[in-house]
Description:
Pfam families: STAS, Sulfate_transp. The protein is mainly alpha-helical. The chain has 3 domains: 13-406, no CATH class; 409-457, no CATH class; 461-572, 2-Layer Sandwich (Transcription Regulator spoIIAA). Helices cover 63% and strands 5% of the residues. It is built from 26 helices and 9 strands. α23 (482-494) links the parallel β6 (469-473) and β7.
Amino acid sequence: MERVTGIRWYAALRSGFPILTWLPRYNLTWLKMDLIAGLTVGLTAVPQALAYAEVAGLPVQYGLYSAFMGGFIYCVFGTSKDITLGPTAIMSLLCAEYIGGDPVFAVVLTLLCGIIQAGMALLRLGFLLDFISHPVIKGFTCAAAVTIGFGQLKNILGLKEIPQQFFLQVYYTFHKIPEARCVLRVGDVILGLCCLFFLVTLTLMKNSLGSSEDEAPLLVRSARRLLWSLATIRNALVVVVATGVAYSAEVTGHHCFSLTGKTAQGLPPFKAPPISETVANGTVITFSDIVKDLGGGLAVIPLMGVLESIAIAKAFSSKNNYRIDANQELFAIGLTNIMGSFVSAYPVTGSFGRTAVNSQTGVCSPAGGIVTGVIVLLSLAFLMPLFFYIPKASLAAVIICAVSPMIDFRVPVQLWRVKRLDLLPFLVTFGVSFWEVQYGIVGGVVVSGFMLLYVVARPKVKVSDHGVLLLELDSGLNFPVTEHLSRLVYKHALHVSPPRCLLLDCAHVSSIDFTVVHELTELLKQFELRGVSMIFTGLKPSVLKVLLSADLPGFRHTDRVDQALQLLTSINH
């Protein structure tokens, strides 16, 4: 008995701490692969983190503050070997909508997001994510990619004072394009376009090398592997080269580029998240005021963060043949955000691009995230003075190349082919997201919800005549269906002359509720008053139990349709 209890306790411990499932099997081969993968992802994460902080409207160091905690927390609590947590384009865009460039608001948002996500995990509320349909997700990601990508044109062109709202952004970007002709702006344009060219070239090179055959000689394979590795860390290469060019120009007295500028140096202090803020004029913004200002972001950002991360984890677990625990993933993300708020991070989630790099470089366990976290910490400790010289145009190029794959033109075509009505939530989400991102998501979810409710309230009912009337239901009988079912019964059986007997085939009905039972009671009374019968057939045991307990007047049922038809035929005669 004690041994069984011990096994149960250990199983529960492994469920709460997934590190215990792989750590006993850890070996030197895994260590080697995790070091390579973690280093590669780290060299990708640093420039992306700097760039995504720009999207969120925060100083660039906050991107790095957000990029290291996930590696340490997820190693202990995560269930996917491939996924990497950190700042992403979509989360940065969502945060920008609510924090207004204020780091204090960002940190409070991180803390509250983490608490909400961890609370959802403890209460097993992950099923709520199932109500966000795939067309809504695709509509949102496509619109977000367009918004983020276009928003970086101002840095490529070196334009200033461009509003954040998308439609105003489009107008003022084209309105101020003539400004790009001045000497300072020309430098940004040339550098930005060069960075874009090299990033696209390296991406195409990586894709072509990845699909090449391994039948070549060893020397050729080694060269391809080296080129593939260089193409994988293309973001870091481009930012380093662009920074070198900008530094050379600055020290020779040529101010040709818009630079990132002064950044805070060193590691972020580990301290409790702020619960209030004092602005320049001495006004104190209390915690409750911050929460009110964050408003709908406290619902949208936690849900979208979890949705994005779990979708990525499921995709790579399927590809690499292992299983994840969605509820444990929810808890890991929540705890990462809670702990991240102690180092001034803004909300994070799983990154598809960095997870793909992690998987392709052969990571064997979540320990690769620790190596990535160390790379980010080393950057914060020693490289922050150099970040002053990073051109904004190079970071903009990194962002544009990172979000461009999110624009998938195949989605509308696939939706049209599979189910045209699913284009509606996709288009609503896509269109409204250009106005306000959160309204786009809410609008898409509402439209999808109405479509789902309509299917529930108006299930397909096949009406046929076999001497007696036969109604075949294809789904559960729940309260929204009652009016529809009653209308059909009255139309085809009770309001005809003479009234007809009815056979109700419930073979596909797996659930029933009180409202339906009440309506069936009224229908059976109407059949009895008119001297005809209604017989049920194909009832599942659970449904039959409910109907028998309701003590319906004149209730009769058979197991098979043919038996019911014979019974009704004999009643008619």
